[in-house]
Design brief:
Metallo-beta-lactamase, Chain A, seven-stranded mixed beta sheet, alpha/beta, globular, about 20% strand
């Protein structure tokens, strides 16, 4: 398996001719753009997909715009099936009524996607304190098709999942469902850390206990650390709500003999690096 980080929580997984794309966000609207309605940028999506020869599926951890804005455009350009919550299913209905292209997932069911084995587990979105929680609420379902351009808040969170791909467990948000991951066979955790700097150290310890220690994983990769209001850059720096969390998590991992690493933009990591 190979893992390539494409910013925010956009992850490309490849193995033996198969590829999965998680939480596609290539358009990356700016902060001021959120004052108006937003829409996918077809050229940005085309450029983002250019490195992918074949795509077996798109997987969504949840349906906030920074995880799902480009899902319909990826579908339009590739025709690939999207696996998502019911909110994701309703989101995609604005583009197509072909229900075979959107698969509402069933937690705990193992799906074969190309050469991958994929399972969706219950999770939660991190709870932001005000005023951040007013801007991006953790709850709410998409019940009607979202036709771009749309307000960013129309991309409601929906049901949140942690996605297990083979022996890798991927979290789009720094939240968790207590006790949900204890019996999984996991070697590597990918942890989205957006907003984690707003939380106390006690929460971070609990997060690490539930998502890493309970799974037996020894390797942790951090995603959702870059400033996704800016165009994707190779030399991107952590946004202000991730800087402290990165150092905290690295120190915490070292206490348990784990390796905690920051995923680097457009850098590919292969399974000989122990995930």
């Amino acid at each position: 398996m190979e893992l390539t980080y494409l910013g925010t929580n956009t992850l490309l997984l490849t193995k033996s001719g198969s590829s999965l794309l998680i939480d596609p966000l290539f358009s990356r609207p700016g902060l001021l753009d959120l004052l108006g309605k937003i829409r996918p940028d077809p050229q940005a999506v085309k450029a983002g997909l250019a490195r992918i020869d074949h795509l077996d599926a798109v997987l969504l951890t949840h349906t906030h715009y920074d995880h799902a804005l480009d899902a319909t455009e990826v579908l339009q350009q590739t025709g690939v099936r999207i696996y998502a919550s019911k909110s994701g299913f309703n989101l995609i209905r604005a583009f197509t009524m072909d229900e075979t292209l959107s698969m509402p997932i069933r937690p705990g069911v193992v799906y074969s996607m190309g050469t991958f084995q994929v399972c969706f587990h219950p999770s939660r979105h991190i709870t932001f304190p005000p005023p951040f929680g007013w801007l991006l609420p953790k709850s709410g379902q998409i019940t009607q098709p979202v036709q771009p351009p749309a307000w960013f808040w129309e991309y409601r969170c929906g049901t949140v999942y942690a996605i297990q791909v083979d022996h890798m467990l991927i979290f789009g948000s720094a939240g968790f469902e207590p006790g949900a991951y204890q019996d999984l066979e996991v070697k590597t955790v990918v942890m989205g850390i957006g907003g984690l700097d707003l939380m106390p150290m006690a929460y971070l310890n609990h997060l690490y206990q539930e998502t890493v220690l309970s799974t037996g994983a020894k390797q942790v990769y951090l995603s959702h650390w870059d400033n996704f209001f800016r165009p994707l850059r190779q030399d991107a720096h952590p946004h202000v709500l991730a800087r402290r969390s990165i150092s905290r998590l690295k120190r915490l991992g070292a206490c348990y003999g784990h390796t905690v690493s920051l995923l680097q933009i457009r850098k590919t990591i292969s399974d000989d690096q122990k995930f």
